[in-house]
Fold these 2 entries.
Entry 1:
Amino acid sequence: MTELADPVLAPIPVDLPQVERRAVLPRGFAAGGAAIGIKRSGRPDLALVAATGGPAAAAAVFTPNRFAAAPVRLSQAHLAAGEPGGQGRYGHARAIVATSGSANAATGAAGDADQAAVAEAVATALGSPATEVLTLSTGVIGTRLPVQVVSSGIATLTPALTTGDAGLEAAARALMTTDSRVKLATTTVVIPDPGDFSVGVATVSGIAKGVGMIHPRMATMLAVLLTDASVPPSLLSTMLRGATVRTWDQLTVDGDTSTNDTVFLLASGASGTAPVDPGTAEAAALAAAVEAVARDLARQQAADGEGATTLITCQVSGAIDDPEARAVARSVVASSLVKAAVHGRDPNWGRIAAAAGNAHLAGAAVLEAGGLAPAVAAERADAPATIDPDRLRIAIAGHLVFDGAAGGPQPLDVEAVRASMAAEECLVRLDLGLGEGTGEAFGCDLSEAYVVENSEYTT
Amino acid sequence: MTELADPVLAPIPVDLPQVERRAVLPRGFAAGGAAIGIKRSGRPDLALVAATGGPAAAAAVFTPNRFAAAPVRLSQAHLAAGEPGGQGRYGHARAIVATSGSANAATGAAGDADQAAVAEAVATALGSPATEVLTLSTGVIGTRLPVQVVSSGIATLTPALTTGDAGLEAAARALMTTDSRVKLATTTVVIPDPGDFSVGVATVSGIAKGVGMIHPRMATMLAVLLTDASVPPSLLSTMLRGATVRTWDQLTVDGDTSTNDTVFLLASGASGTAPVDPGTAEAAALAAAVEAVARDLARQQAADGEGATTLITCQVSGAIDDPEARAVARSVVASSLVKAAVHGRDPNWGRIAAAAGNAHLAGAAVLEAGGLAPAVAAERADAPATIDPDRLRIAIAGHLVFDGAAGGPQPLDVEAVRASMAAEECLVRLDLGLGEGTGEAFGCDLSEAYVVENSEYTT
C-alpha cells in the first residue's frame, strides 16, 4: 500500500479541461476538404478553413528550421504585414489553406511564387485580400506545387465549405500524409460577461497531422486551432506560445524538425461571449482550453508516429524548475535506445537514466531560448548538474525500477513490468528529488516499421 | 569536365598522416586481453595496457553524461589527484584496465567500491599506486561488476602481458561488445632531435570499441591511444582535446551519449625521440598523428554502428567558420530520416537540406561549449542563420542534387545516384557558400537491424 502512494508510480495530474476527440467546428468558421490530385493516391489533399464573419484574430508558431518552406515564409509575411514589430506572430486572417502531398520546401523563388498564387486563389474565391490568407503545406521536399490544380481545386471547394462539423473533419482528413488516424480535439470554456452577468460558452477545437520529421521546438507538423471566443491577436499569441512550450515543443517522433511545421490559432469571436482581456480569469481559462486541445493533439501525433505501436509519455517531477523537467522528459522520449527498448517491452531503466543524464547536451537551453534570456540560456547550458543519480527515481508503467537513494536498481518482476508496458501508452516517470519543477514529453517507440517506411519513401 | 572540377562533388582533402588498420604496440607498453567470464558468451572481456618503464604521461576525455559511470569517476579522480587545478584531464598513469559486459553505471556507492577494487587489483599486480590506474567499462547499465572474477583475472593476465603487437590486438578484442570488427589504427611521426640533429620516429596507435549509444561531444564509447613519444601531460591533453573536437565529437550512431565514454592517450616516451614541447613543429606533427588515428578509429566505429550497412561521411565547406561546418555536418549524420534514406539508397536531398537547417537546434553551441566562451555560445545559439538556401549546394555520392543558386533541385539520374550510394561509404557533401569554414562528421545508416538489436537487448 505504501508503494501505491508513491507519486513516482502515478501520472502527474494534468490540470487542464477535458477534451473530446471529435470534430466540432466553432461558430464563425466554415471548413472543408477535397481530393484534387496533388497526391498520386487520390486521397484528400486540399483543406480550407475560412472565417465567415470577416477576418479572425490569428496567432501562429512556425518551425525554427533555417530551411523554412514557402508556405511558412508567406504566412509569416502576411501576419507581419499587420503586426506591430512585424515578427509574423499574430494578426488577422480570413482563411487557412493547406495542401498535402508536396511540402513546397526548398523550391526557391519559384516555390514562393507558387505559394503566393495559392493564397491569391483563396483570396479571389473569398473576396478578401491575399494578406489575410495563411498557408500550410506538407509532403515531399523539393517538389513544386501543381498551382493550376490547386487553384481550380480552391475555386471548386470554396463554395462547398460548410459551417457544420463535417467540414472540419474533412479538413482534418485532407491534412493527412502518412497519418493512420485523423487527429481531432475539442473542448469548451465558460466565459462570463461582466457587463450583463450572463454566461457564455466558447468552443476551442483543433485538427492536426503528424507523423514523421517531428521534434521539439515547434516541430509539430501542422495544426489548426479554432475558437469562437473573442480575443485580441496579441493575447491569442501569448496563449498559443504558452501552450506550445508545454505541448508541441515536448513532442518528438524522430528528432527531425520539419521545414513546414506550423500551428495556427484563429479566434472568430462568433460565440457572442464577452471579449477576453489579458490577465483575467477568462484569459486563463481560455489558455487552459487551448493547451488542453494542443496537448491532446500532440499526444495523438506521438501515438501515430511512423511505425509506432506505443505512445511514450515521460513525466518528470522534482526538477529544480519546470524547464529543466521538460528538458529531461524530452531527452528520454527522444532517445533511440529508450524508444527501441519500449518497442521490445524491455524495462531497460539504464537507458532511461542515461538519456536523462544527457538532457543538458540536447540543446535544452537552446530549445527554450524563446522563453529564456541568452544569458540565462548560457548559464543553463553550463549548469553543473540537473541530475543527481543518488536522488533519481524511475518508474516504468507503474513499477519502481530505480531508486538512487535506496541502492539504485530495484528488484523487479520483469514479466510483470513487461506486461504493464504492453499497452497503448507507456508511462515513464522520473522524480529528480531536487525541487518542485514538473514537465512531460511525448514520443513513441522505434520499430522496424519506421525504418522500412522511411527508407522506402521516394524523393 | 566542368562538373568534375566542382569541389562539392569531391571529398574535402584531409591533411593528416596516413593510417594503417593493424595492431602496432608503441614502445614502452605491454598489453593483453583475456576471457574471464564477465560476458556470458565467453568472449574476451578483460583488457590491460601497462606502461613498462614507469608511469606514462596521460590525457583523457570523458563523457559529459550526468550519469557518468563508476570507471569514469574513478579515472577522473585519479588524474585529478596529481593535476594542477584537479579537473581530471591529464596526469600520469601506469596502466589502463578495461572490462566489458557490465558498464558499472548507475550502481551507486557499491559500484564505486567495485571499481576501486578493480584498480587496486591492477595496482597490486603491477606494484604501483592505485591512483596510477585508469579504468574503462562497457556493457549493460545497472549490473554490478563481478569483482572477485575481475581481480583474479587481473592477477592471471598481468604476468602474461606482452610488449608484442599481439598484446594490443588482444586488448582491442577484449574491449568489444556488439562490435562486429576489431578497431585498430596506427601511424608514425618523425621527431628530429634539435640537440644532436638525429631523427627519431615515434608511433601513435589506437584501439577502440563502438557501436551503440554513440553521439557527439565525447560520446565515443571507449578508445585508448598510445604513443612512445615523449610529451608532457598538459600538452598531451591539448592534443587529445583538439583531435576529439574534429573526430569523436563528430561521430554519432544513435544520438545517445553513453555514461561510460572515455578516450585515453598515454605517452611512454620510450621511443627515445626528443621531448615534444608546446608550440613546436613536432607538437603539430604529433597532434596530426593523434588526430589521424582518432579520425580513423571514429570512422571504424561509425561504419560498425549497430545494424549499419553504410558509413555516412558528411563533409561541409563554405561555412562561416569550422565550428559551424561541424555543427551542420553533425546535424546531417544524426538525422534519422537521412539515415533511413541512405539505408534505402534514396537520394532524398530534401531531408539533408532540412537536417542542415536544424543544425542550430541540436545544441550546436552547447556541443562545442568546451571550445567557446559562454557568451559566444549564447550568441551562436541565437545566430540569425547559418544556412542560406539560395547558396546551399548538396552532392550525394558525387552527384550534384541541389544547387540553391541554380533553381534548387537538379535533374537527376536517380538510378545512377542510387548505384553510387550502394557502397561501403556514402559521402554527403554540402557547400554553404558563406565562408571558408570546413568540417566533417561520421555516422551510419539506420536499418531494421538496429531496431531489432536494440529492442531485444535485455536489461
Entry 2:
Amino acid sequence: MGLIVQKFGGTSVADAERVMNVARIVTDTYKQGNNVVVVVSAQGDTTDDLIEKAKEINPNASKREMDMLMTAGEQISISLLAMAIQKLGFPVISLLGWQAGFVTSSVYGSARIRRIETERLQNELDQNKIVVVAGFQGLNKYDDMTTLGRGGSDTSAVAIASALHADKCQIFTDVEGVYTADPRKIPNAVKLEEITYDEMLELATLGAQVLNNRSVEMAKKYNVELEVLSSLVRKPGTIVKENVNMEKMLISGVAKDTQVARISLVGLPDEPGIAFQAFSRLAAKNINVDIILQSIGRDGTKDISFTVAKDSGDEAVALMKDFIKSCGGKDVAIDKDVAKVSIVGAGMETHAGVAAKMFEALYGAHINIRMIATSEIKISVLINAEDADAAVAAIHDKFIG
Amino acid sequence: MGLIVQKFGGTSVADAERVMNVARIVTDTYKQGNNVVVVVSAQGDTTDDLIEKAKEINPNASKREMDMLMTAGEQISISLLAMAIQKLGFPVISLLGWQAGFVTSSVYGSARIRRIETERLQNELDQNKIVVVAGFQGLNKYDDMTTLGRGGSDTSAVAIASALHADKCQIFTDVEGVYTADPRKIPNAVKLEEITYDEMLELATLGAQVLNNRSVEMAKKYNVELEVLSSLVRKPGTIVKENVNMEKMLISGVAKDTQVARISLVGLPDEPGIAFQAFSRLAAKNINVDIILQSIGRDGTKDISFTVAKDSGDEAVALMKDFIKSCGGKDVAIDKDVAKVSIVGAGMETHAGVAAKMFEALYGAHINIRMIATSEIKISVLINAEDADAAVAAIHDKFIG
C-alpha cells in the first residue's frame, strides 16, 4: 500500500491503443493496492495540430492565448485516459491543472509552479479513485491558464509527488531507464539500477535527455524518489535518489554533446579584468559559457578559449570581435567541428585516477584532446566532432566494458 | 455606443479563413464604438474528431468525462478567434465558460445555466477589450466542466446578454434571417424584418430550426432583443422581440413538419376518463402528443386521433393496443405518410378569417385536410405527406405572394 505518481508523455498516449496500454499499467499498479495519481501530457499529434492551427491564423499570437490553446491538449488526453480506465472497470476522475490545485507564476509559456492546493486531489484519492491530472499546466493569479514550458509534465508529476508525499514518482518514457551510454550506439551500454540526482542532472545537461532538469532539481530539493522506466516494456527502470551504493559503479554514464562550438580569443593583453570584461559581455546577451581554458601569459599576452552552444556561436564571435578591438587583442576564431564527451559519476569523488583512465582510453583510440574541464562528479573533454562516437565507445569499454 | 453580444456557431469558425471572417465582423462592430462580447462554439470538425477519439476508446464513457473532453473544443475556438482579432490589431481576451462566470446545474451533457457571475466579464469590458467567451459550457458545484446540451451556445449568448443588460444579442447563422417559408423551396419566401418571441418559438417547434428554443424562451423571459443574421452576407437580419408592428404582416411564416405520424383509436367506449387513460399511458413513457381530435360519440362509442413524432410511433401503437384491450375498444391504426403544415403569426389574433383563407388555399390546390388544430398564433393542418410541399407553396402564395 502506497501512493504512486505515474507520468506518461505525449508519445505514450499518442493513439487509442497506447492510451489503453497506459490504462493497463495504471490499473495494474492500482490493483496491487496502491493509490495512483497519473500525470499525462497532450497527445503528440494534438500538440502539433494546435500549433499548426494557431500559425495559420496568427504566427505572432500572444502567449496568453497560446497557453489557452495548448492547455486544451492535455484536457483531451486526460479525459480519454479516464475513459480508458473506466472501460477496464476502475473508479477514475480526470482533473485539469487548476482543478488539481496547480497555482503558477504569471509568465505565460514558461510559468513556474508556486504551490499545489491538494484539497481536491486528496479528496478524490480518499474516495479510492485513480486521479488523472493534466500535466504541463496550471492557473495564475489572474485565473488564467498557464503552461510550464519544456518538460513541464515531468515537473508537474514531481510537484504532485512532493505535495502528496508520494512513495515514488515513476516517469514513463520510450527507453527502459538511464544507460551508461546511448544504447543505440554502444551495444554493451548498461542500464543503471540507481543513480543520484546530481549525476542525473549532469547527464541531462550533457545531452542524454531522459528527464527534464527542472524536474530532477525539484525531486532533489524535496527528496522525491524518481524511477525512469519504459511504458512499452514491463521491467524495473532506473531509480534516481539522493544516495546510491557508490561501490557498485565508478561512473554512471558516458555522454556526448555535439551542439558546441569553441571560440578562441588570441593575443589578449595579460592584464587583470580581461576575462571578466569578455564574459560579462556574453552574459549580458544570455550566452552561456561552458568549458573555459586560459593559457599561461607569454610576451605580455594571453589566449582564452571557451565553448558555447553551437547556435550562439556567431553571436558570440560578433561580441568578441568588438571586445578584441576595444582591448587591443589580436584575433577571434571559432571552431564548430568539435564535440564534448563527458563521464559522470558520484563514484569518482572517492576514486583517484579516473581522469587518467579516461585519457588513456582516448589515447588508445588515437583521439586528440583539445580542452579539459572537471567537476566533482564529471570530467569533460573537447575533441574533434568526427572522433565523438569513437571516444564514447573507447571510454565506455574502459570503464564499463 | 452600446454593448452587443454576438454568437457564432461551429461552421462559422470551421477553418482559418472563416475565423478571420468572424474576427472582421466582430472588430467592425467594435470600431463602431460598441463593446462586444463574442460567444463561439467549437469548430465543426473538432467536435467530430473528439467524439471519434472517445468512441474508439470507450463508447460508454461517463458523461462527466465526455464533458471534460468536449469542452476542450470551445477552448480551441476561443483562443484561435482571439488570435485572429489580435492579428487585426484589437485588444481581446478569450474566456472559458467558468472564467466568464457560467455556473450550471450538475447534470453532465445537458446542464442548465444557474447564474452568470459577471465580475470578470465586466472587468475585461471595462478595459475596452473584446471578450471572446466559450459557449455551450460552464462549471457545476463540484468545480467540474459541464456542457449545456443541444443549441447550448445560443443559450450562452442570450444568458450573457441578459446578465450584462446588452443592447442586442446577434445570432449569426448560415441563413440571412427568418423567412416566411424555406427559401430553398419557396422562391418568393420573404425575409422577415421582425418577429415576436412566441412566433419564433412556434416556428422552431414546427421544424424551421433557426434558433434553439431554450435560447428564445430565455430571451423572452429576460426581454433580450435577438437578431438572426448571416455570418457570410453583411445585411440586417431578423429581429426577434416582444412586440412587433402587427399591421405589417398577417402571418410570419409557413412551416411543414414531415416527422409526424397519426394514430387513431377506433371504437372506444364513450365514457368519461377514456382520453385521460389513453394519454396518461403515453405521458408515462415521455411520448409527446401534438394535435388531438375526438369524434362526436355515436352508438355509445367514439374515436380519438392524435399525432406523435414519427420515431415514437411504434412505441405509441404498442401502448395503445394494450389500452384498447383493457377498455374494450375496437382497433388501433397508425399512418406515417402524413405531414403537418402550419401558419404562424401574432397578426392572426386580431384578424378574422385567417383559418378560412388557409383552407381556401388548400382547397384551391386540391389538398385534403385530415386534422386541424389551432392556437392563438398558429393554425396547423395534417395532410398527406406527398401534398406537403404543394400545401406550403399554396398557403405562402395566398398570404404572402
